[in-house]
């Protein structure tokens, strides 16, 4: 597993200052855990754990914007105290069961304290969005704890989220309510296909056992 | 609800029409077979009530013509003679029910209600079991928050099981019922479709279990 890590600009470096070290350490701790689990999962099941893994540190620009929006001082100290998404990791899996296997593995690691746990796969958002979100507090060398936001979903869920995101920022649209419900229908059809593909994999494996 | 009543006995027909209208059925009247056929071909009805003995075209002929044209409207035949042959011919021509003259109005109304109820349940079917609803018009299986869209065979299979919960059902019977047009299919496809549905029910946190045991399956709803 080779995680794609978004490069840190000199601006970001300057914004987070000497906290950047701890941020990178926490990010690496979770990525190492995922890499280790990938080996175990492949051995146990013969499957790739994930199609791809991406990680990013929230840029100076969007972090400052978010602070201002929430009427907070736009600096690193506030960001690390009040925000939980300065480290974001996205894991995109081929099958639904892979997502839940990773979630279970991360939760079973007692170094990680779960701060927020949102299963939007079992309980999708009203617009049809499906994904597993959770935030863990990861200890670093200084004794501090850093929040890491992890989002896991299938290729189909990722595809829907990415297309929906592109459509969402269009200004005023005609028949909006109808199109919103059509997008939800697409999410439900993709969810159904996801589960059919999962079932086919289960059936193939059941036969070869 | 709109009915088409066809009978050549004008006085009786008029009286029946008044009572049906009074019971909430919008009723069109035909006084011979040809007129009945013409009205049925032209308009939409929720049920037909045809007398068998009519001039120009008898009720059985009218009904079999309509059935050949693909009309599936529920139909009740009225017969003067309680002849077995008559009733059999009517049912074979596509009637859903029959009533022997003279009849009690109460019974006619109860039979119309039963016939249209059956049809409605099949057509609209918001079938509900536990926390899961099936919506036939969109082929959707959903809980109170969200849902998945099913394929036609998946939907027909789960709808059949929803109508027959807590029964051991032979997979062979399901194959004949749901996959009737596809002759080369085997019980394996029932197994695969049950597997799809199991995963989809689980994804919706369904409060029911779909079980398979050898040649049988069962939808366990508490």
Q: Could you explain how this protein is built, in words?
A:
The complex is a heterodimer of chains A (209) and B (222). Chain A is an alpha/beta fold. Chain A has one domain (4-159): Beta Polymerase, domain 2 (2-Layer Sandwich). Chain A has helices at residues 10-16, 20-45, 60-69, 76-82, 96-108, 155-168, 176-208; strands at 4-5, 52-57, 87-93, 113-119, 132-139, 145-154. Chain A starts with a strand and ends with a helix. By secondary structure, chain B is α/β, with parallel strands linked by helices. Helices cover 44% and strands 23% of the residues of chain B. Chain B contains 8 helices and 12 strands. In chain B, helix 2 packs parallel to helix 3, helix 6 (152-163) crosses helix 8 (187-203) and helix 7 crosses helix 8. The radius of gyration of chain B is 22 Å and the shape is elongated. Chain A binds chain B through residues 96, 121-124, 126, 128, 185, 188-189, 191-192, 195-196, 198-199, 202-203, and chain B through 138, 140, 145-151, 192, 195-196, 198-200, 203, 205.
Structural class of chain B comes to alpha/beta
Reading side by side through the largest sheet of chain A, how are the strands ordered?
Answer: 1-2-3-6-5-4
The CATH class assignment of chain A is: Alpha Beta
Distance between the termini of chain B: 35 Å
For the record, the count of structural domains of chain B works out to 2
CATH architecture call of chain A: 2-Layer Sandwich
Q: In the CATH hierarchy, what is the superfamily of chain A?
A: Beta Polymerase, domain 2
- Supply Rg of chain A: 19 Å
CATH topology of the largest domain in chain B: Rossmann fold
Termini gap of chain A: 27 Å
Largest interface: A-B, 18 and 17 residues
Record the SSE blueprint.
The complex is a heterodimer of chains A (209) and B (222).
Chain A: E1 4-5, H1 10-16, H2 20-45, E2 52-57, H3 60-69, H4 76-82, E3 87-93, H5 96-108, E4 113-119, E5 132-139, E6 145-154, H6 155-168, H7 176-208
Parallel strand pairs in A: 1-2, 3-6
Antiparallel strand pairs in A: 2-3, 4-5, 5-6
Helix pairs in contact in A: 6-7
Chain B: E1 2-6, H1 10-22, E2 26-30, H2 33-42, E3 47-51, H3 59-68, E4 75-79, H4 84-92, E5 97-100, H5 105-123, E6 126-129, E7 132-135, E8 140-142, E9 147-149, H6 152-163, E10 169-170, H7 171-178, H8 187-203, E11 208-213, E12 216-221
Parallel strand pairs in B: 1-2, 1-3, 3-4, 4-5
Antiparallel strand pairs in B: 6-7, 7-8, 8-9, 10-12, 11-12
């Amino acid at each position: 597993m080779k995680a794609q890590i978004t490069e840190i600009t000199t601006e970001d470096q300057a914004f987070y200052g000497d906290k950047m070290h701890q941020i990178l350490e926490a990010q690496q701790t979770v990525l190492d855990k995922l890499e280790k689990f990938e080996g175990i999962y492949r051995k146990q099941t013969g499957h790739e754990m994930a199609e791809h893994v991406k990680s990013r540190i929230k840029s100076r620009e969007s972090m400052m914007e978010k602070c201002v929006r929430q009427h907070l001082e736009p600096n690193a100290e506030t960001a690390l105290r009040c925000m939980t998404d300065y480290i974001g990791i996205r894991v995109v899996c081929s099958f639904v069961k892979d997502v839940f296997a990773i979630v279970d593995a991360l939760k079973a690691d007692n170094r990680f304290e779960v701060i927020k746990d949102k299963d939007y796969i079992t309980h999708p958002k009203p617009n049809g969005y499906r994904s597993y979100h959770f935030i863990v507090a990861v200890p670093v060398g200084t004794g501090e704890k850093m929040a890491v936001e992890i989002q896991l979903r299938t290729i189909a869920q990722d595809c829907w989220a990415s297309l929906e995101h592109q459509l969402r920022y269009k200004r005023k649209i005609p028949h909006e309510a109808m199109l919103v419900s059509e997008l939800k229908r697409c999410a439900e059809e993709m969810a159904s296909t996801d589960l059919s593909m999962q079932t086919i994999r289960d059936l193939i494996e059941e036969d070869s056992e | 609800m709109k009915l088409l009543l066809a009978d050549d006995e004008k006085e009786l027909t008029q009286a029946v029409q008044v009572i049906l209208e009074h019971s909430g059925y919008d009723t069109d009247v035909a006084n011979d077979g040809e007129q009945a056929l013409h009205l049925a071909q032209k308009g939409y009805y929720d049920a037909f009530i045809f007398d068998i003995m009519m001039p120009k075209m008898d009720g059985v002929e009218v009904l079999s013509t309509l059935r050949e044209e693909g009309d599936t409207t529920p139909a009740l035949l009225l017969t003067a003679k309680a002849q077995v042959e008559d009733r059999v011919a009517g049912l074979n021509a596509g009637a859903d029910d029959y009533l022997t003259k003279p009849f009690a109005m109460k019974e006619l109304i109860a039979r119309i209600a039963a016939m249209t109820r059956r049809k409605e349940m099949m057509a609209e079917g918001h079938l509900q079991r536990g926390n899961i609803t099936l919506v036939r018009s969109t082929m959707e299986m959903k809980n109170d928050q969200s849902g998945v869209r099913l394929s036609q065979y998946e939907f027909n299979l789960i709808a059949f099981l929803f109508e027959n919960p807590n029964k051991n059902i032979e997979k062979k019977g399901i194959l004949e019922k749901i996959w009737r047009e596809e002759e080369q299919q085997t019980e394996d496809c029932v197994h695969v479709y049950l597997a799809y549905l199991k995963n989809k029910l689980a994804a919706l946190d369904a409060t029911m279990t779909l079980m398979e045991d050898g040649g049988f399956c069962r939808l366990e709803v508490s």
